[in-house]
Amino acid sequence: MALKGAPILVCAKTHCSHLGVSDLRSNRSGFASNLRYDFERFRKWECCCLGALSQRAITPVEDEKPSVSVTDISGKTEGTRDHESREFYKDLNLLPRPLTANDLSSSPSDGSKVRVAYQGIPGAYSEAAALKAYPKSETVPCDQFEAAFQAVELWLVDKAVLPIENSAGGSIHRNYDLLLRHRLHIVGEVKLQVNHCLLGLPCVKREEIKRVFSHPQCLAQCEMTLSNLGIIRISADNTAVAAQMVASIGLRDTGAIASARAAEIYGLDILAEKIQDNDENITRFLILAREPIIPGTDRPYKTSVVFNLEEGPGLLFKALAVFALRDINLTKIESRPQKRHPLRVVDDSNEGSAKCFDYHFYIDFEASMAEPRAQYALGHLQEFATFLRVLGSYPMDRNP
């Protein structure tokens, strides 16, 4: 299969005071006094096309740490364990093994169905999001976010579905950093209603649980419930991994906080449902692909961009104002440090110099790149930005 070139919009700093912006009026002359010529004059974008797969460099992630695998679970059980437990161990060994960053031997999809990568193991919320986006897909578990990115880039899978923010826990900073390090495109989003369940071994009562395993964010989202029950919290790599650990350990006083699907897969009982402190707990996932989609105007679209700014008074205000001037609603803004150049020395006074932090700014706004107002806004933003990249323009998910 040939790899098609995919245009990636990367903008170096150029002055665009000659942009044609039809929606700016004379009372906004502070931003657009010289914007009078045709829109075609401003389109001096640098377009980089991806070459063959062998020419693409995947930037290694310095602080990636290998996860602790718990998939090698012994089939031995105590004599008191019932028939259902024995069946659980037999089925557990048949579950797909998560991909790692070094596991590159799998053959690509034959096209019969979409292969979608997610971080975690079967029963994770990420798997549920992948199945919501592609109900008939073949889901492929990955042990780390980095492995999911690489699985798409190396044609092991067609798409990846990864979390980017949670309504209670906030942003997933790791994936923001990986979006910039890799050359994948955002082609969609999935909003998933999260229902945390307290899981235990069969026939165990809730009062018997003394400790629980779960992901740190999940434990934080259930803080009040766990405090009222007096339960000790133990961190795990993933909610589904926590359920798997409880099933493998086999201790009656040990439970997990995970999804109802995880309980079904690993043979656990649901002792309590919706134990999160906030009932409206929604996680937003991004759908990533090798090729961008062609944005349209037939339905609501969202566009995600990342840019850098020079140091100076009011520059961030000016950058955000290019959207307000065109009635474009911003739904998300996130800043992440530039790890390669975290500090900049600036002459601040006659007594010496001051060190300022450099940041990447990520923005989501409600508009399609097929709309002229979005094109004009990014053209205007280019006047202040030293770097600008469109991560994707994709349909919005309005049905959590």
Detailed description of the structure:
This protein is of the alpha+beta class. It has three domains: 92-192, D-Maltodextrin-Binding Protein, domain 2, CATH 3.40.190.10; 197-275, Periplasmic binding protein-like II (D-Maltodextrin-Binding Protein, domain 2); 295-395, ACT domain (Alpha-Beta Plaits, 2-Layer Sandwich). The chain is built from eleven helices and 19 strands. It has helices at 29-32, 83-92, 125-133, 145-153, 173-181, 216-221, 223-229, 239-249, 260-266, 315-324, 372-381, and strands at 7-12, 46-49, 115-119, 138-142, 159-166, 170-171, 185-193, 197-200, 211-214, 232-235, 254-258, 269-272, 282-289, 301-309, 330-337, 343-349, 352-357, 359-365, 385-395. It has a six-stranded antiparallel beta sheet with strand order 2-1-19-14-18-15. Strands 3, 4, 5, 6, 7 and 13 form a six-stranded mixed beta sheet that branches. Helix 10 runs antiparallel to helix 11 (372-381). The chain is elongated. 38% of the residues are buried. The model is unreliable at 1-90 and 104-111 (pLDDT under 50). Residues 115-290 form the Prephenate dehydratase domain. This is Arogenate dehydratase. Keywords: Amino-acid biosynthesis, Aromatic amino acid biosynthesis, Chloroplast, Lyase, Phenylalanine biosynthesis, Plastid, Transit peptide.
